[in-house]
Amino acid sequence: MEGKEQVLSCIQPTGNVHLGRYFGAIQNWVALQEKYDCIYGVVNYHGMTTPFDPQKLRTLTWDVAFRLMACGLDVNNIFIHSLVPEHTELAWILSCMTSYGELTRMTQFKDKSLQISESNKDAFISTGLFTYPVLQAADIIIYHARYVPVGKDQEQHLELTRNIATRFNHVVKKEYFPLPEPLYTEIPKVMSTADPTRKMSASLGEKHNIDVFADPNRIRKQIMSAVTDSGDVSYPDMSPGVENLFSLLKASGYTETYANLMHLYQSGTLGYGKLKEEVANAIIEMTEPFRQKLLILNADKRAVKEQIKQSSAKIRERAQKTLKEVRELSGLI
Questions:
Q1: Mean pLDDT, the chain, as a whole number?
Q2: What is the mean pLDDT of residues 235-255?
């Protein structure tokens, strides 16, 4: 990867790999591997910031890593967070250079803690949920990442990372950490087919997300039951449900079908049953190679897990080098 600039991105092992996660991140990660030196983490430390079950966390961590490979990520680019503990040590050092005020302004903490409180007023809200942006900053700069693929909702976290890196450089009087920049790409807006006013999310329940690795019959059933409109919305206006179906079709790469159906919609001759059928066919066809690859990976789980452990160990060497230099710069014995 000599001469290629560094890209870092991570995914939490929470919930399934649904279409929102695939189109919103993973599909782009696969493409970026051709141009950049990419490192992708399954960040199970971040999966502990909200109430969790240890056995489920362990299982989901492996499951997500397998699914990333099935979607096309090179195993040599994948690491598991807890197999690279240097991240957490760097996070402590960086936390001492992060102000309390900066963390209180992080909107995701406010949103997530409010969501937990609304579901249970006596719910446990961990300190980790408050401080995890510092660990996220460590995840990025420990590899001296040049770019981070982000959506608009992650801009605040990346800006905090840049602030922390700047402060570290100032304290040690050396331009050690580069300031990572956002790597913006066109990300399809994927909404729940059950409620197209809400973003597709595993936390909303099974009916609100479509698992990339689900049985084709289940995928078809979910698409065919998608909310469209009551029939009183017509071109040039488009209801959120119909817009979401078109978005899924376009994101799946079926541009010709998309153009043909859009023409029918604009002429007022498109039946929503046909639209749903074409979207279901496109998604099932697009995801079939992923399901087949996952079957192959699951047939020899022990060997695949060993591959992931080896790639994590190789990536850890880079983190160890950074941490050794950080300790020295920070005056740590």
A1: 91
A2: 88
Residue 232 has pLDDT above 60, yes or no: no
DSSP-derived secondary structure for 28-83: HHHHHTTTSEEEEEE-TTGGGSS---HHHHHHHHHHHHHHHHHTT--GGGEEEGGG
CA distance 106 to 173: 27
Residue pair 227/241 in contact (Cβ under 8 Å)? The answer is yes
- Whether the CB-CB separation of 42 and 65 falls below 8 Å is answered with yes
Q: How many angstroms separate the first and last alpha carbons of the chain?
A: 33
DSSP 8-state code for residue 18: B
- Closest CA relative to residue 78, chosen from 40, 45, 43, 44: 40
User: Per-residue confidence at 330, pLDDT binned at 50, 70, 90?
Assistant: very high
Helix (H) or strand (E) holding 10: strand 6-11
Cα–Cα distance for residue pair 71/26, rounded to 1 Å: 8
- What pLDDT is attached to residue 276? 96
Q: What is the DSSP string of 168-204?
A: HHHHHTS--S---EEE-------B-SS-TTSB--GGG
Residues 6+ apart with CB under 8 A from 29: 9, 38, 40, 68, 73, 149
- Give how far Cα 166 sits from Cα of 3, 149, 163, 227, 277, Å: 25, 20, 5, 47, 52
Residue 226 near residue 272 (C-beta atoms within 8 A): no
Three state DSSP letters for 89-104: HHHHHHHCCCCHHHHH
